[in-house]
């Protein structure tokens, strides 16, 4: 008998659709404890704490549910601390740590465990994470950082087999040519690493490195696969040639430098880095290709597993790659409607396993960014992707969650990026939104190109042109977004600033659905709110540049110095020229400098003299430079350019007084050569410049040794030193400084010329704190662009462009 009743539709209870994040608590407790105590405290106390946690966990587990939750936290904490203690004990076994403390010269055998990382220009001795103990090794063009797992060390009459990680900082050309997994021998001078660093010692070579045996087996095959992918993309446009291998296997070796800078400025670097979101995109692309070619659903997980293993091998299984692979696998759960609820437990397990495998990941910003991005994908990727999919055509609708991955990653990672940059990017979300439609196709086709290139490079090269089109779109978005005005605004780099931004981000994500709903009902009101918000966000900068009354402009030349002092009527004194001509040329054009009455070169590092040719395009009367011609190749290049332009070049010495029109300057350094620290840095010309009633202290790149000499000279001639109103902070805010020099500055304006996202750690947090503790108002070119000092009734103020 028919009753006419409709079939009953079973709806899953709401609680079964929610994400269970309770298992994340133990991981989030263990993480900071390992980072800030487990890797820094006395090893014996760490062992005791690990044992105590495990004993307490066993007792708590006998209680009811609440006790079991406490037991889980204690068990994970004990496991993580025990792993940290074990790793520390293994790494410190053997004589390397003692030899490093004695700064001994040793012969070592080992394996290269990370590709050489070139560092342009001067790195100084203040690299975060251990280079500070490099035994005074100055930096110069051609500097490379190479991580070596030492297996045997011979020194001070003893030999030992060890398993100790060492960071080599070298200017020796042969070190830049070693490859990952090469077996090498070398003679090194060891120096102690920073406490809590992921290496036991920092070393400078005493001669060339010798490769005993190159990488073989599967590692050699991986290098062949990378090479074939590069060959397949060799004929593409420059941006695509760099981006396709970068998005597929994290190979950024051919990305144009200006595109790298643009992606960094617009928050797009996570697309090309080997990150969790990058791996998620690759795996999602493999899954989509599998479905497209008809692979059965039950065989897709094994295919994905093989793809993940191949990715790790080809991208090289360094700790950062393994971490990214694990996080990417968890992130893939976020894109799955059926397995999404398993994501938070999987993320918790991944964090714990990675901390046990490598406790030093707990101190890595990359690990933190990857974990937070993965959590963001678990919470936001599926709902955002489903909303986007409604607007996509049928065949590509399943890619909706994939397309939102870069946007989600940018939104949730912004609070963690703030302590690194001190600013909030206004264009990052816009750039990620605009780039998102191109990321999926580039990655999907790029994966197909990589697979095909193993069999046939010519055929893969044809397919690569399909990947080149969306890749060029990513490059175009990055370059266009980087050129937008007011692309970022200062936010602060303190923990409080990060917490505040995190709170605003969470509130924004919570309110966004309601705001979207209201905006659809009242679009006029919504448009008015957007216009008002945009208007209030525009900085109140001057419309004309440079501002009236300017006396000094600190040009935003990237990681380097380029200073311009006004001498009137389109004339100027220029102090240093930045690392490359284009940025310096642009700054001088914006200011309207037609003639340079004096070009001062504080020292010959490339980040201070690289743009000399741009200045010499104008009428230059004279060049005055440091008498220490080091590095000699840069000094010789400058001399050739000066001769070619017919400009005389002379030296500046401590005690000289220089007059250029209404500008007066006193030279305080160099008086002699200092062999300690970085010789070129400590040979920097240090000036006090007197212009329009203000005194500016331009400190070059002096380190603590030369700063002490400047301090001594200033106290011998207090009348000549005078009242200093503005400080150009030495060495881009390096931690290698003498704080007593800061106390000799009467004014409270400090200007830092530094490149955005530089990998030197400039400006150092300790230097910023020292300035803040003394009440300085700090301005930075990486956050604010060109900075102009304006004389206003005898007082100095800063206007940013």
TrEMBL record:
This is ComEC/Rec2 family competence protein. CDD domains: ComA-like_MBL-fold. It is found in: Cell membrane. It is a multi-pass membrane protein. Residues 559-731 form the Metallo-beta-lactamase domain. The keyword Disulfide bond does not apply. InterPro entries: ComA-like_MBL, ComEC_N, Competence_DNA_uptake, Metallo-B-lactamas, RibonucZ/Hydroxyglut_hydro. Pfam families: Competence, Lactamase_B.
């Amino acid at each position: 008998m028919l009753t006419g009743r409709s079939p009953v539709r079973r709806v899953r209870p709401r609680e079964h659709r929610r994400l269970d994040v309770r298992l994340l608590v133990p991981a989030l407790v263990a993480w900071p404890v390992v980072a800030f105590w487990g890797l820094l405290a006395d090893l014996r106390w760490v062992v005791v704490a690990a044992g105590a946690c495990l004993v307490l966990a066993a007792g708590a587990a006998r209680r009811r549910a609440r006790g079991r939750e406490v037991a889980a936290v204690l068990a994970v904490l004990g496991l993580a601390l025990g792993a940290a203690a074990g790793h520390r004990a293994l790494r410190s076994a053997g004589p390397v740590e003692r030899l490093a403390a004695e700064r001994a010269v040793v012969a070592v055998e080992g394996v290269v465990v990370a590709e050489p990382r070139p560092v342009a220009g001067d790195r100084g001795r203040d690299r975060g994470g251990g280079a500070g103990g490099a035994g005074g090794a100055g930096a110069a063009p051609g500097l490379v950082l190479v991580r070596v797992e030492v297996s045997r060390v011979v020194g001070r009459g003893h030999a030992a087999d060890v398993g100790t990680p060492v960071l080599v900082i070298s200017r020796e050309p042969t070190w830049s040519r070693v490859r990952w997994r090469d077996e090498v021998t070398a003679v090194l001078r060891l120096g102690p690493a920073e406490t809590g660093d992921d290496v036991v010692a920092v070393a400078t070579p005493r001669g060339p490195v010798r490769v005993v045996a190159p990488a073989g087996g599967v590692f050699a095959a991986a290098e062949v696969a990378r090479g074939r992918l590069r060959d397949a993309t060799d004929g593409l446009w420059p941006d695509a040639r760099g981006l396709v291998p970068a998005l597929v296997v994290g190979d950024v070796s051919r990305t144009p430098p200006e595109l790298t800078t643009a992606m960094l400025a617009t928050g797009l670097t996570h697309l090309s880095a080997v990150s969790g979101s990058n791996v998620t995109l690759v795996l999602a692309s493999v899954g989509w290709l599998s479905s497209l070619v008809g692979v059965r659903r039950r065989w897709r997980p094994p295919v994905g597993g093989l793809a993940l293993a191949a990715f790790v091998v080809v991208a090289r299984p360094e700790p950062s790659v393994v971490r990214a692979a694990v996080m990417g696998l968890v992130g893939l759960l976020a894109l799955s409607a059926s397995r999404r609820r398993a994501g938070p437990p999987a993320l918790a397990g991944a964090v714990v396993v990675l901390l046990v495998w490598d406790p030093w990941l707990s101190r890595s910003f990359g690990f933190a960014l990857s974990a937070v991005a993965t959590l963001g994908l678990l919470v936001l990727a599926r709902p955002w992707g489903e909303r986007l999919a409604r607007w996509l055509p049928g065949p590509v609708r399943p890619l909706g969650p994939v397309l939102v991955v870069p946007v989600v990653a940018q939104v949730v990672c912004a609070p963690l990026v703030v302590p690194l940059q001190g600013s909030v990017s206004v264009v990052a979300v816009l750039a990620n939104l605009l780039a998102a439609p191109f990321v999926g196709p580039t990655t999907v086709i790029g994966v197909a190109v990589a697979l095909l290139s193993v069999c046939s490079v010519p055929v893969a090269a044809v397919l690569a042109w399909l990947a080149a089109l969306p890749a060029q779109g990513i490059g175009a978005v990055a370059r266009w977004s980087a050129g937008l005005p007011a692309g970022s605004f200062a936010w602060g780099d303190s923990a409080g600033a990060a917490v505040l931004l995190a709170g605003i981000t969470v509130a924004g994500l919570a309110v966004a659905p309601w705001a979207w709903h209201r905006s659809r009902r009242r679009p006029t009101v919504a448009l008015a709110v957007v216009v008002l918000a945009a208007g209030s966000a525009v900085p109140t900068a001057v419309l004309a540049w440079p501002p009236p009354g300017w006396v000094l402009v600190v040009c935003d030349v990237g990681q380097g110095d380029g200073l311009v002092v006004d001498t009137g009527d389109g004339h100027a004194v220029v102090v240093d020229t930045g690392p490359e001509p284009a940025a310096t040329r642009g700054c001088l054009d914006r200011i309207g400098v037609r003639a340079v009455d004096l070009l001062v070169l504080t020292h010959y590092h490339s980040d201070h003299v690289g743009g000399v040719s741009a200045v010499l395009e104008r009428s230059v009367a004279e060049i005055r430079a440091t008498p220490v011609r080091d590095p000699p190749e840069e000094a010789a290049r400058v001399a050739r350019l000066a001769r070619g332009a017919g400009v005389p070049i002379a030296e500046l010495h401590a005690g000289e007084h220089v007059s250029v029109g209404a500008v007066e300057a006193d030279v305080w350094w160099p008086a002699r050569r200092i062999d300690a620290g970085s010789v070129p840095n400590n040979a920097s010309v240090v000036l006090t410049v007197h212009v329009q009633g203000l005194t500016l202290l331009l400190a070059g790149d002096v380190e603590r040794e030369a700063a002490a000499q400047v301090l001594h000279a200033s106290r011998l001639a207090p009348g000549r030193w005078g009242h200093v109103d503005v400080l150009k902070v030495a060495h881009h805010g390096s931690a290698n400084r003498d704080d007593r020099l800061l106390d000799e500055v009467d004014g409270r304006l400090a200007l830092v010329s530094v490149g955005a996202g530089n990998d030197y750690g400039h400006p150092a947090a300790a230097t910023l704190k020292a300035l803040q503790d003394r009440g300085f108002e700090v301005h930075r070119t990486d956050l604010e662009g060109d900075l102009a000092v304006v004389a206003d009734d005898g007082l100095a103020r800063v206007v940013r462009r």
